[in-house]
Design brief:
Elements (H helix, E strand, L loop, with lengths): L2 H26 L3 E2 L20 E7 L6 H14 L3 E7 L4 H6 L7 E6 L4 E6 L4 H12 L6
Parallel strand pairs: 2-3
Antiparallel strand pairs: 1-5, 2-4, 4-5
């Protein structure tokens, strides 16, 4: 292998790595709609009940630098909307919950419908507008009202 061939191989590997990284970053803060196959029981999370219309379920850890900002945003959204509850679960001492919900990063936010079915999942820091649009969709509200 010549020096030029080695440089071309390294450049190709670098391009692929950057491309994969950009794609993963693009995917990170976007809502993902899930198959409604599981009903989340509030007792498992240490809560008395879920929201009347929807629940914003946030998974955090003690060392997460972005979690407090997401907590404030989700809390404000829940306060502004009747029937929406915000639950923040600290996974630092609950690896069983992290494993069950396949949480690989914090913050991770799930939007549950009134029955506790997971409708949407956000990995990373979701934008306020994306959360509000998903809440409108989950609760059946017209997003243009």
């Amino acid at each position: 292998m010549t020096l030029l061939d080695a440089i071309l191989v390294l450049a190709a590997l670098l391009a692929v790595t950057v491309g994969v990284g950009l794609f993963m970053r693009w995917q990170q803060n976007r809502p993902r709609h899930l198959d409604p196959s599981e009903v989340v029981e509030p007792e498992r999370l240490g809560a008395d009940a879920l929201g009347e219309h929807a629940t914003l379920l946030q998974f955090s850890t003690e060392m997460c630098s972005r979690c407090s900002g997401v907590h404030r945003t989700l809390g404000a959204i829940a306060e502004e909307r009747a029937g929406v509850l915000h639950l923040d679960i600290d996974l630092t001492h609950r690896p069983d919950i992290a494993k069950h919900f396949h949480v690989l990063q914090t913050p991770t936010t799930l939007i549950l419908d009134r029955d506790g079915v997971i409708q949407t999942r956000f990995g990373g820091t979701p934008s306020r507008s994306a959360v509000e649009l998903e809440l409108d969709r989950v609760s059946g509200r017209d997003a243009h009202v």
